Amino acid sequence: MKSNAIHVSAKVLRNLRMRQDILRCSFDIDAKPDRKPLSNVTLKTHFIEDFVSDAEIIESLGSPLIEKLPPDIKVSFEFFPPKTEKMQTKLWSAIKRLAPLQPRFVSVTYGAGGSTRERTHETVARIQNETDLVAAAHLTCVGASRGGVDDVARRYWDAGIKHIVALRGDPPGGEESYSPHPDGYGYASDLVAGLTKVADFEISVAAYPETHAEATSADADLDNLKRKIDAGATRAITQLFFDPDLYFRFQDRAAAAGITVPIVPGLMPVTNFKQNANFAKRSGTSVPSWMYELFSGLDEDPGTRELVSASLAVEQVKRLVRGGVSEFHYYTLNRADLSYAICHVLGIRPEGDDEAI
Ligand SMILES: Cc1cc2nc3c(=O)[nH]c(=O)nc-3n(C[C@H](O)[C@H](O)[C@H](O)COP(=O)(O)OP(=O)(O)OC[C@H]3O[C@@H](n4cnc5c(N)ncnc54)[C@H](O)[C@@H]3O)c2cc1C
User: What are the residue ranges spanned by the domains of the chain?
Assistant: First the structure.
């Protein structure tokens, strides 16, 4: 394999990302220490044949995704702990449907303020014990002392759960703003550092393409992400976003800040647009105005809504795959169908399926 170092502009960098699959090349960015938008970066390239024109990129986006799929696409799925028997049944039917797709891991959220501590534990432990899936537990700093959080983590480790999604957490219901527990971990970076002392966990953390609502600036938020990585996290999962360009711009800024761990896009298939849009707004995610137009008139028409959602989700992953992304995290909301369909389009087939590509 030929390797060399070259200087390229931000535009060429984006073009290369779009074309990684076609050029059969990969590259590492030599990050610049300053945070300026990428203008000239040094790429360590491995076998770049040629640079590409915009026309070629547009043509590549126009071709069916399945024609040029990278072979190593990986997914993970996120669930929330069920409150009732009925929700429990729904969750397990989703898990059973998605499990044969062999996700890299599946994770279970931790309710605001630690309100689902036991339910999260039960769900994660059951996934670990009753399936072949790798289960990951979300854990937050809210409402508990360091010792209390460490105990929860130790229980996970003892139950065979070795992957934690470490978060600061949102304030419990009814509270406007976050305030750390007097004896607790203040921020996610503190929690990551604490977890590394409890056991040798794999640790994922949150990242915000549109900047966390409480961050003093986009750069400060990126500094915070870097602190979480430096403390021991090995993967960032993004807050949901709808516009792939937001992700690519964030990825560029993270690379310029020296962040080299995978930044896995967190995607939410639209199941109920009103609900999804409200959730997105609460999470600081912008909802493009064309999405309101796309879903207007479909509130009472779930069948059409599902078809429209599927086409939107496919368009989104197509742009991400063409930009070089090969790992995705799906916020399933405990529903399997759309995530399953997207995986199918991404060439991910149930284990043992002879027709898998
Ligand atoms: C993939 C993913 C999964 C999630 N799962 C859950 C879940 O299961 N349960 C849940 O309750 N929430 C969950 N959340 C939401 C998350 O808890 C909120 O977004 C929360 O507001 C921030 O969490 P964080 O881990 O990003 O916090 P942090 O990384 O600690 O950052 C929080 C804010 O504080 C700022 N900050 C960090 N350190 C400092 C400091 N030392 N001084 C001042 N400011 C600082 C940051 O810039 C940021 O604005 C999830 C989010 C994502 C993206």
Answer: 3-63, 66-345
